[in-house]
Sequence to fold (501 residues):
Amino acid sequence: MLKKKWQIITAGSVGAAMLLTAGCSESTPNGTAQTDTPNGQETVITVWGLSDFLKGEESPGQRMISEFNEKNKGEIRVEGRYMPAAEYNTAIQAAITSNDLPDIFQTPSNSDIRTFVANGHVLPFDGLVSDSWKGRYLEGSFAEGVNVIDGKIYSWPLTGPTLGSILYYNKEVLSKAGLDPETPPKTWDELREMSKVITAKGKGDVYGLVLGGGETGIAGSVNAFAAGVAPEQVGGFNYQTGKYAYDGKATLESFEFLQKLKQDGSILPSSYTIKLAEAAVLFGQNKAAFLIDGRARMWLLKRDTPEAKFGLAVVPTPDGSKPTYYYVPSNPTGYMISSKTKHSKEVGMFLENGFTDPMFYEKYLKSGVALTPIDSINTNKSLYPYPEFETFIQLHKDLLRVRPDYAVRNPQTAKVIVELSSIDQPKIKPGYNEILQALLSGAQKDASSQLKGYNDKLNKGLEDSVSKVKTSGANVDLKDFAFPNWDLKKDYTTNNYKELK
Fold:
């Protein structure tokens, strides 16, 4: 059985001013905002988000909202609003400044639930949902210091386990190039040689690989390749050592491989400036054979280029062995309740009977967006929307493992994360993807030197933040971020945490 959970993958950043803005709310003694809706008047609840979950009338989120509104017509009406990341981040900052946050909103890019709790911008769910509500979710979905702060719940797992790196391969492009459409590459050498063949036969119209380099496509591809080199270094932070590892061999060797693909002429030229969605459409229109992206791309390809014939596979590794990717059962991002809401009772009703209802999650799985946080739904094959979904499920089972979490080990590390905004430290510029963009374009040279400089800044930032919160009285140490007993091929368990004590 698949006992895993989720990640929400976002891009961009939120200004520090937004996260430092003090928040206050008109609350009842138990911390929940009062409702001021007159009797007999329809209550309007606003929901904002930046994920495609809410994009378009046929999206899972908007369909769920429509059904909830129909069932509660005349009493409660929910208005869901989707915005792209950059627009969303700006809108949330403005809403905080004007004390006009929506009733329910998603954590902005590169931000953290813990920061919003610390600044008083959000309410706990306790008392707004039933006591049995928490039991719907997979084991480990709620953790103190992550989405539970001082014993109170501030968000829930929107999805189940999330695989952020999948090789999507276009069967029609492979076939036209004389390659087996049912045999995707397993090694870096195979990917490179197949891309050369496809590009040569494409004659300037079809290429081996397409990237969404204008957003996070370059960093995403490097991270995907890196899992086959040194998986503990993927994402830039090594949880074995408690140090940043952006200058480690995983990133350097993977970036060097991407440079070789560019030198071969195998990357679609517009890849360096287009967005991820544009890259996916070009892939679906048979302009490239390969696309590396996360779990959400599958259903988006089905939606945006329904005629595309594609398959899903493991991202190639240097020797063809399976890579390992990691997730944590609880996650410090998600949808939260504004401390400014005047309709906390109705918000609780919507969350329990709409947004998190098991019947909704059944439809969510059928949409093909992601796995759900309810195991019995994930294993129900009658809900799988199309044949590729079985491969999708199997990839999650085969490649995902639970990594250690500093917040589970010591919830007071949350104070360090509040100082940093997130473990990725978005205030340090240029960021990882920006550095890789400059290196791949040729604007900067010497990847090792550039990434070492970035790495040194991040390590110092972590050290300084730990020192600062220790001075203020927190019981926290740099050692809380290191897990030397982590076996990279196995889930990190409760017993592993106990071993460190």
In short: Residues 16-159+330-402 form a domain with the D-Maltodextrin-Binding Protein; domain 2 fold (CATH 3.40.190.10). The chain has 19 helices and 15 strands. Confidence is low (pLDDT under 50) at residues 1-36. The chain has two domains: 16-159+330-402, 166-322+421-501.
